[in-house]
Write a structure and sequence with these properties.
Strands 1-3-2 form a 3-stranded antiparallel beta sheet, with no helix packed on it. The chain has a domain at 2-27 and 72-205 and 233-264. By secondary structure, the protein is mainly α. It has helices spanning 2-8, 10-44, 50-73, 76-94, 96-101, 107-139, 151-156, 160-179, 182-202, 236-265, and strands at residues 211-212, 223-226, 229-231.
């Protein structure tokens, strides 16, 4: 089953691998090459008008760095679409899933393998990307704003970016099992993940007690919440881990629901009882 899943979805595996390795290579290039060029440009800017010169040089580094985190973070849209449309929905719609269930592969084993293989691939990709991104994000803070509270940066600096991908996998699978049509399931799964992300992200600042400035001037590294309340940079991990736990809880619920639904729909019909002749 594992080999069959890898062969059937090898294109998606190749795309994901190229995407992760390409993002890592881009981060290394920005940190080791582009940053030095930007620093040299800033040093050569005219002292009487450093503003315009500095802004364009700064953007050569900060904008690509931002795009890497943004694309990786919102990649869960693609995961949800793929899980609903290609991984599960297409096989249910075409009937190949039922064919597999007649070849000594139980529905539970079929679904477990379908989920386990891409989940391991997603985790492996995150295990490569997150440490490199954390290193790159911290390497040249003078060339970037103190943006640790931005949605994509907040997620990409820890396991949350992987949690959203796993949640998209589970939600896409459950949606496909409910709808049993690839294209409708694809659209619904992406919509559900977008709404979930917007809701969880909306209350992100409430996941850990805030601090009160008491009228003090706040440094640039704080995440201001309004009303004199704020999150210092030290709150990153508590906030990050709480949100990761919430997203993983949704993942577990969606996965459990998918297995229960599949078991219910593939349960053999009861055999009618025959009355014995008098």
């Amino acid at each position: 089953m594992t080999g069959a899943v890898l062969r059937l979805h090898r294109t998606a595996l190749i795309v994901w691998t190229v995407f992760v390795l390409g993002s890592v290579a881009w981060l290394v290039w920005l940190t080791e090459v582009t940053a030095d060029d930007v620093h040299a440009t800033l040093a050569a800017c005219p002292k009487n008008s450093p503003g315009t010169c500095g802004i364009w040089a700064w953007r050569d580094y900060s904008e690509p760095m931002g795009w890497v985190s943004t694309i990786m973070y919102y990649g869960f849209w693609a995961v949800a679409a793929w899980a609903a449309g290609a991984l599960i929905g297409r096989e249910l719609e075409s009937g190949t899933a039922r064919l597999a269930w007649t070849q000594d592969v139980s529905p539970t084993r079929w679904l477990a393998t379908k989920l386990a293989v891409p989940a391991l691939v997603l985790i492996a990709g995150g295990a490569v990307f997150v440490p490199v991104y954390r290193w790159a994000w911290s390497a040249h803070r003078d060339l970037m704003g103190d943006d640790w509270g931005f949605a994509d940066v907040f997620a990409a600096r820890g396991p949350l970016v992987v949690a959203y991908a796993l949640c998209a996998l589970a939600v896409g699978t459950l949606t496909a099992l409910i709808v049993r049509r690839s294209l409708p399931a694809l659209g619904i799964a992406v919509a559900v993940m977008i709404l979930l992300n917007l809701y969880v992200q909306k209350y992100r600042g409430d996941y850990w007690p805030v601090a009160d400035s008491h009228g003090r001037e706040l440094p640039d590294t704080v995440w201001q919440q309004g009303g004199g309340l704020y999150h210092p940079a030290s709150h990153f991990w508590p906030l990050h881990l709480v949100e990761t736990g919430i997203v993983l809880a949704v993942t577990a619920l969606a996965t459990t629901a998918a297995f229960l639904l599949l078991r219910h729909r593939t349960r053999p019909a009861p055999t009618p009882r025959q009355e014995s002749p008098a």
